[in-house]
User: Which sequence fits this backbone?
């Protein structure tokens, strides 16, 4: 229920803010069906389907609400404002949304009763004062609506009761706030009522049609190329700096509980020595269980030190504590297919002890110099989901059974390229993502230039991305998120190029080229991760929005037909055929490893299994967060953490640069405002793109994390650029401030985004901005 | 700019006498706590009805409204003082005996031994002025009362509340003086006075601590600093010197405001240097130092000599104490208000809370205490206070940018900001829950309320003025309900 309330209040606040602004200027002329239909979808269907469970009463409430909506339109038809305005005001009233979400007969009756009372009041007033505008009541209406929203949130989401208002031990804060707001709204209503009909007609002020540019559009030139090279090089330096070790134990030996010759290891230390712990670098399989024993020469028997000890992480050093004086150490395997790449025996003070029988297990003791010490940071090992994606990249190269199949394969195939070039070590498995992350900087620069045709804005876009903490973290961890994000940005960029070309009636061939490039990007995105599909839906919305607008403004339907036919054919090829082909082809490794099925069947079967998996991931996780928590950067995801004896901590966390997170959110509201009041094309494009990337997560009820907001974050950077360039005054100065603040915050948080070890006190006292930010 | 009416001093003296008389009568009548709360409610309701009748008859002028608000403020202050014994909602009282080493013991030591404490243990390190005044008031009143608890140490200490209560009432009167100094009239003047009249921090501070007396002396210091800036004559200089001398003798925290006054002195002096008319200032500064320094510092020097007590000494709380908040980041503690905290509960949690701004708002309403009253009352009071914070903060910040247009407004803003900077510094230096308590910051309410009114009166944005004038009656309503319902 909470997400519905949050979504409703944000949507209503946005609408009411813009409405109040336009109403003050007397420029609310009504809403077209093309606006009212999306309003209905936004305020009725989306909240309804956001809920995890729906019952018949929710649908009945929806239907009865439609009847009230019709009555509102009917009764408003005789008033000075058009009925479409009344419909919009009704749609953005939180009460019906809550009634629909809560369901139940009483809620439906309340909705109808309240709306009927309001309508009767308005009817009486409009018949008594036919020339007066009811907009004087908008303040009271908004206040009462907000009050009802807060009270309902308290009653239905927080499960408070009215009786708790008189309790000494419960604090229904939102309920009290709601009651106060309703009371204040009623007072305001009666104050307005006393003066109703006496006010003068508001003065109409003209609304700017399109944001007037405060600068002359520039041409892309040498300066821009230098900018791009410099930012990219600087960013590449940061990304590749201590990206990961070039060395990790690679020779391995496979053990198997079912094979008597390979079911155990006996390590002979030559004499009795105190062994503190074993460090075992596991091969491709994680979650392997072993039992560790010590041989007692007096009693002539093996004594179990650790039974069924689980080695959790593949391609990482796993510690097994022993603290035993021993000569012979036995390791018995409990599962099939356990790959050990290296074993380090550590004595007192973490001194490496070399067994005397290393020749018997040459692969396990041949790379002892690659042991980084007992505190192996992210630099030497896999972190977070690298254990899935990095490992599967390795499996693709060696045609091994495929471990990770919950995402399409292309991203892991690309990660495999780095492993192929640099070996199965941290640098190797992170190389590809680092390259993709780096290349996104010039791409963002180009995109920002495209929306503004201004070097300063483009530079701001590039610098903001280069100083984004989540972008840096995802560029340094071998997961597929940065790869799919790269393709998504390409997709939006090419679609923007198309829209721009179409709006200025450019050559059809050029328009089709952008369509195809967007389609190819979409194909690559979808073949990497299904989030590409969300972006594809956004692309479709953008495409049709701007196409309809273009055709309506520039051509008659008859003139448009040949153009539309050509475009339609190109779109089918670009957005259906090419992505389908790419998606199937991405399964080539599956077809090579599992020869029982052809590639098409692999693609279909695995997609079904992916859908089933993602629908059922509901296990709680300490770092999981809801979509509305992403907006405020509430809960970072800790990918790796190591503490050192000198009270330093190396941790890698996925979180947004707080400046960009909050400035981006403000920029989104500003862009919606620019779109609705100034008819800015770029603002409209970017706002829809942001919503397209965010909206799908409203319906997702699986366990999700903050990095799933990364696509939105990239659009937010463009929103900030567009906002700043649309402001009045000295744009250059504002851009410099934005870049400087972002850079300062970025460098402040760099240790957390990159894993650089810093004193614990710095983390605790400076970086942990809110209690939910835990980095140490 | 209108000048301060000199007869005000008689009004303040009358307030002190009135509070003392009411207290004595209360003691003689063998008090009934419930009765006084009902009586407070009746008085305030009657006054509200009177105002409504005046409004209906179109006779409700700003002067009448302000007078009735001040009356209601007095009722709340004196009423709270009467129904709250010294031992209830107190701080560091310790035992009610001569060697109790708390605030109670300090007063009893002065009365019984007729001398200052011979140790600096626990609270005995505190500056003595407040305790001396308490003893001077308590001793004659309790010898007069004789049999009616006059020999009970608890009642002897209890009488000291007269000083805090009178100080609280005088600060309310002085708020109207601030309004006149800034030429604030009409509804915003009433709103500013209403804000101070019903601010619960002024009732809660009517306890046996030097905080409210210190607040009064700070308020006087601010008024006279403004007047000194306009007219740096001997009278203003000497009053200011005595105020600071007695202020430091009450509590060292007035030193934060002394920085502001020093800044004003320096500003005025450099202006006069430019005009080559700095001659008359030097003797005034010398006389200021001659009066204020010995008055303010003699006790600190005495304690330094006798007990090796450092200047500016405060009782330190170790970092493993439950009150310690230093394990939260600087950002969490100081930079932004902790908004989610407002949602959880209205009362401050001295052992849990760590955010200065949130705690400030909460402790200005309820101190460190929790009350058994219906939830709607404290929550409503909290929201009204949050609403008032918006114009108050805006008024203070905007006032700081008006150094050319309105010097008085600028200086008042600067005083609040300098004082708040000292509070932040203090909290950084002593990161403990109790360091955030509003009882140390009550001084800011009156200037902030007046600055908010001034901003609303002069600003084109109507909503903030509406918010201010609408929030004050709600604040007043919940404040009265809260402090007539508590047990």
Assistant:
């Amino acid at each position: 229920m909470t997400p519905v309330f949050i979504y409703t209040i944000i949507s209503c606040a946005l609408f009411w803010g813009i409405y109040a602004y336009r109403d003050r200027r007397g420029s609310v002329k009504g809403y077209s069906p093309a606006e009212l239909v999306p309003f209905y979808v936004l305020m009725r269907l989306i909240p309804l389907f956001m809920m995890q469970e729906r019952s018949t009463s929710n649908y009945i409430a929806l239907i009865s609400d439609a009847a009230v909506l019709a009555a509102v339109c009917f009764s408003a038809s005789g008033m000075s404002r058009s009925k479409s305005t009344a419909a919009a005001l009704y749609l953005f009233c939180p009460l019906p949304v809550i009634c629909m979400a809560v369901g139940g007969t009483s809620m439906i009756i309340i909705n109808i009763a309240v709306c009927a009372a309001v309508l009767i009041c308005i009817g009486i007033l409009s018949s008594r004062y036919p020339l007066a505008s009811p907009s004087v009541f908008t303040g009271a209406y908004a206040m009462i609506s907000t009050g009802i929203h807060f009270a309902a949130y308290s009653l239905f989401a927080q499960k408070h009761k009215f009786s708790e208002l008189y309790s000494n031990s419960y604090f229904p804060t939102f309920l009290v706030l709601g009651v106060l707001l309703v009371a204040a709204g009623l007072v305001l209503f009666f104050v307005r009522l006393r003066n109703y009909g006496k006010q003068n007609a508001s003065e109409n002020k003209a609304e700017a049609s399109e944001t007037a540019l405060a600068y002359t559009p520039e041409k892309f030139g040498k300066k821009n190329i230098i900018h791009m090279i410099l930012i990219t090089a600087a960013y590449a330096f940061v990304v590749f700096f201590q990206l990961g070790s070039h060395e990790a134990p690679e020779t391995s030996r496979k053990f198997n509980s079912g094979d008597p010759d390979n079911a155990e290891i006996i390590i002979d230390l030559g004499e009795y020595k105190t062994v503190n712990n074993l460090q075992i670098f596991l091969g491709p399989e994680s979650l392997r269980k072993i039992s560790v024993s010590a041989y007692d020469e007096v009693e002539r028997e093996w004594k179990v030190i650790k039974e069924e000890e689980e080695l959790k992480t593949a391609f990482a050093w796993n510690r097994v504590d022993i603290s035993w004086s021993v000569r012979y150490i036995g390791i018995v395997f409990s599962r099939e297919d356990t790959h050990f790449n290296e074993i380090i025996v550590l004595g007192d003070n973490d001194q490496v002890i070399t067994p005397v029988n290393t020749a018997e297990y040459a692969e396990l003791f041949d790379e002892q110099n690659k042991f980084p010490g007992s505190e192996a940071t992210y630099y030497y090992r896999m972190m977070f989901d690298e254990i899935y994606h990095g490992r599967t990249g390795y499996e693709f190269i060696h045609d091994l059974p495929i471990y990770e199949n919950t995402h399409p394969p292309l991203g892991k195939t690309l990660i495999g390229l780095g492993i192929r070039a640099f070996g199965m070590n941290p640098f190797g498995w992170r190389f590809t993502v680092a390259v993709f992350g780096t290349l996104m900087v010039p791409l963002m620069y180009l995109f920002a230039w495209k929306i503004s045709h201004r070097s300063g804005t483009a530079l701001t876009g590039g610098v903001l991305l280069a100083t984004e903490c989540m972008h840096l973290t995802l560029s340094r961890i071998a997961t597929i998120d940065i790869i799919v994000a790269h393709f998504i940005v390409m997709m939006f960029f090419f679609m923007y190029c198309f829209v721009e070309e179409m709006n200025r009636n450019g050559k059809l061939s050029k328009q089709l080229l952008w369509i195809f490039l967007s389609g190819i990007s979409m194909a690559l995105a979808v073949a990497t991760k299904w989030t590409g599909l969300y972006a594809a839906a956004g692309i479709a919305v953008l495409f049709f929005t701007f196409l309809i607008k273009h055709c309506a403004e520039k051509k008659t339907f008859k003139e448009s037909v040949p153009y539309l036919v050509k475009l339609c054919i190109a779109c089918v090829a670009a957005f259906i055929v090419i992505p389908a082909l790419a998606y199937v082809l991405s399964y080539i490794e599956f077809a090579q490893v599992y020869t029982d099925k052809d590639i098409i069947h692999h693609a279909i079967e695995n997609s079904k299994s992916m859908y089933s998996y993602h629908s059922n991931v509901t296990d709680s996780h300490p770092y999981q967060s809801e979509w509305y928590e992403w907006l405020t950067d509430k809960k970072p995801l800790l990918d790796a953490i190591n503490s050192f004896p000198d009270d330093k901590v190396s941790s890698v966390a996925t979180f947004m640069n707080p400046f960009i997170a909050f400035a981006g959110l403000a920029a989104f509201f500003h862009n919606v405002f620019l779109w609705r009041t100034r008819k800015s094309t770029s603002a409209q494009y970017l706002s829809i793109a942001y919503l397209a990337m965010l909206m799908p997560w409203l319906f997702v009820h699986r366990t999700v994390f903050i990095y799933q907001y990364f696509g939105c974050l990239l659009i937010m950077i463009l929103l900030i650029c567009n906002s700043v360039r649309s402001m009045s005054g000295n744009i250059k100065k504002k851009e410099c401030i934005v870049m400087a603040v972002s850079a300062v915050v970025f460098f402040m948080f760099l240790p957390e985004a990159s894993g650089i070890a810093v004193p614990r006190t710095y983390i605790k006292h400076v970086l942990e901005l809110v209690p939910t930010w835990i980095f140490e | 700019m209108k000048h301060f009416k000199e007869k005000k001093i008689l009004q303040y003296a009358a307030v002190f006498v009135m509070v003392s008389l009411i207290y004595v009568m209360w003691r003689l009548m063998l008090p009934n706590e419930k009765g006084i709360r009902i009586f407070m409610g009746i008085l305030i309701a009657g006054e509200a009805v009177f105002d409504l009748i005046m409004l209906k008859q179109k006779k409700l002028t700003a002067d009448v409204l302000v007078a009735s608000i001040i009356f209601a403020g007095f009722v709340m202050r004196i009423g709270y003082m009467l129904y709250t014994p010294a031992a209830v909602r107190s701080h560091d009282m310790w035992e009610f005996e001569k060697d109790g080493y708390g605030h109670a013991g300090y007063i009893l030591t002065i009365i019984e031994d007729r001398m200052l404490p011979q140790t600096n243990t626990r609270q005995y390190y505190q500056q003595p002025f407040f305790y001396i005044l308490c003893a001077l008031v308590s001793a004659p009143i309790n010898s007069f009362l004789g049999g009616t608890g006059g020999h009970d140490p608890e009642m002897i200490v209890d009488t000291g509340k007269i000083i805090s209560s009178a100080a609280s009432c005088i600060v309310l009167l002085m708020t109207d003086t601030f309004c006149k100094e800034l030429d604030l009239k009409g509804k915003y003047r009433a709103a500013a006075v209403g804000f101070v009249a019903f601010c619960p921090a002024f009732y809660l501070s009517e306890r046996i601590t030097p905080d409210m007396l210190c607040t009064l002396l700070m308020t006087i210091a601010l008024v006279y600093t403004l007047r000194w800036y306009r007219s740096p004559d001997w009278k203003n200089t000497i009053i200011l010197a005595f105020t600071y001398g007695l202020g430091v003798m009450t509590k060292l925290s007035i030193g934060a405001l002394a920085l502001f006054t020093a800044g004003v002195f320096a500003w005025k002096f450099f202006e006069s240097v430019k005009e080559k008319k700095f001659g008359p200032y030097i003797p005034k500064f010398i006389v200021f130092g001659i009066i204020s320094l010995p008055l303010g510092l003699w006790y600190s020097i005495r304690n330094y000599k006798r007990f090796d007590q450092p200047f500016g000494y405060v009782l330190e709380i170790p970092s493993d104490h439950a009150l310690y908040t230093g394990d939260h980041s600087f950002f969490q503690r100081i930079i932004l208000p902790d908004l989610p905290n407002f949602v959880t509960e209205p009362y401050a949690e001295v052992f849990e809370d760590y955010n200065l701004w949130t705690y400030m708002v909460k402790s200005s309403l309820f101190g460190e205490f929790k009350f058994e009253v219906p939830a709607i009352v404290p929550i409503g009071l909290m929201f009204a206070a949050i609403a008032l914070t918006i114009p108050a903060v805006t008024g203070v910040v905007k006032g700081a940018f008006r150094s050319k247009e309105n010097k008085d407004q600028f200086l008042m803003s600067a005083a609040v900001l300098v004082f708040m900077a000292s509070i932040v510094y203090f909290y950084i230096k002593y990161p403990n829950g109790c360091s955030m308590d509003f009882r140390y910051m009550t001084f800011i309410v009156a200037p902030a309320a007046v600055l908010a009114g001034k901003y609303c009166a002069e600003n084109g944005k109507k909503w903030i003025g509406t918010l201010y004038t609408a929030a004050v009656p709600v604040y007043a309503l919940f404040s009265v309900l809260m402090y007539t319902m508590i047990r």
Observations:
- Chain B touches chain A at residues 327-332, 335, 342-346, 372-376, 378-380, 383, 470, 474 (CB under 8 Å).
- Chain B has one domain: 8-86+160-316+374-485.
